[in-house]
Amino acid sequence: MRIENAILSTAFRYFAAVARAGSIRAAARELNIASSAINRQVLMLEEAIGIALFERTGRALRLNQAGELLLAQITATGREYEDTLAAIEALKGLRSGTVRVATVESASVELLPRFLASFNAAHPGISVELQVTGSDAVTARVRAREADIGFTFNPASLEGLQVAHENAMQIGAIVSPDHPLAGHKTVSLADCLVHPYAWPAHGLSLRTALDIARQQLERAAPPLLQANSLRVMAALARQGRCVAFQTEVGIERHLQTGALKFLPLTDDVLPPDRFMLVRQAGRTPSLAAEAFFEHVIQEL
User: Fold this and answer.
1) Which of 3, 176, 216, 224 could form a disulfide with 240 if both were Cys (CB 3.0 to 4.6 A apart)?
2) Other CB atoms closer than 10 Å to residue 189's CB: what's the count?
3) Is 31 among the domain residues?
4) 254/130 same-domain check
5) For residue 183, what is the domain's CATH number?
6) Strands 172-175 and 54-57
7) Do 141 and 233 form a contact (C-beta atoms < 8 A)?
8) Is residue 250 in a domain?
9) Is residue 83 a part of any domain in this protein?
10) Using an 8 Å Cβ cutoff, are 172 and 246 in contact?
11) How far, in Å, CA of 198 to CA of 200, rounded?
12) Structural domain tally of the chain?
């Protein structure tokens, strides 16, 4: 059955919104459109395609296999359209555009804001969309073309990605200036774990590295805190409540002011934390994304 393009344009947009929001009512709030209008478009789309796209449980809607296939295609088509518009804008010169960036939390605290500020000064017409997430989620977003550039640590897989910059970072303990360990130049993990400590949660690349070292110890008390936020653990360490662990990325200002002490860990089995700048391999970036990429490489 032939479907009119005008109908598809609206129906696809409403369908994608419902898929993201999980219900007609939530999608209506997001789009500021009446629920009845969104429901009508979704039903028309299902009728035109000839198959249901959602599993309906009360007011909740969950994509079925057909819906997931359609959403993936709509998303990919939308990205192609954005890339085409970016290429057209490039013909006018680098006056506008959007760069999509995915980053781990630690790089979002000090490092990335510095890059963004200097880039904005040079290219005020280019906007940046920033997503803060876990290390493997960063690479997944770049691989799926949901981000042009990714800042990450130790990703599990680099398939389909180009590593544009890599730096092996020392993992250390961070403590307040009045902590019993603060006078040391270096420490072992065993030295740290006799004190209250915070431990990275699963999903953080740092957790994998630290677990390797902790397995070598005979015994260790449970952590005071287990968290997926390095910023929270660093804040607790600044208050003198615990030892936390990370690289120097994200705590640069606190190290400069003396609010935190960074003590490199001496455990031989502890691998370095590899900081990486990645982008999709084999893809021609938009002019805006390329400009941001070159700017970051120069700053690094």
Assistant:
1) 176
2) 23
3) yes
4) no
5) 3.40.190.290
6) unpaired
7) no
8) yes
9) no
10) yes
11) 7
12) 3
**Average pLDDT per 10 consecutive residues for the chain, totaling 300 residues:** 49 89 89 90 90 87 91 82 69 75 94 94 92 93 93 92 94 97 96 96 90 88 94 96 95 96 95 92 86 90
Q: Are residues 245 and 291 in the same domain?
A: no
Q: Structure tokens of 202? A: 């699963």
> 3-state DSSP call for residue 205?
helix
Q: Which two tokens stand for residue 95?
A: 């006056």
Which CA distances in Å does 27 have to 38, 51, 65, 254, 268?
8, 21, 20, 42, 52
Q: How many CB atoms lie within 10 A of CB 100?
A: 23
Q: Looking at the structure, do residues 115 and 186 belong to the same domain, yes or no? A: no
Return the structure tokens found at 280.
């999709």
Taking only the tens place, the pLDDT of each residue in 255-289 is 999 999 999 999 999 988 999 999 999 888 888 88
The pTM score is 0.70
Q: Is 170 helix (H, G, I), strand (E, B) or coil?
A: coil
Q: What is the CATH number of the domain that holds 51?
A: 1.10.10.10
Other CB atoms within 10 A of residue 144 CB: 14
Tell me which residue of 192, 241, 263 sits closest to 221, measured CA to CA.
192
The reply to whether 105 and 138 lie within a common domain is yes
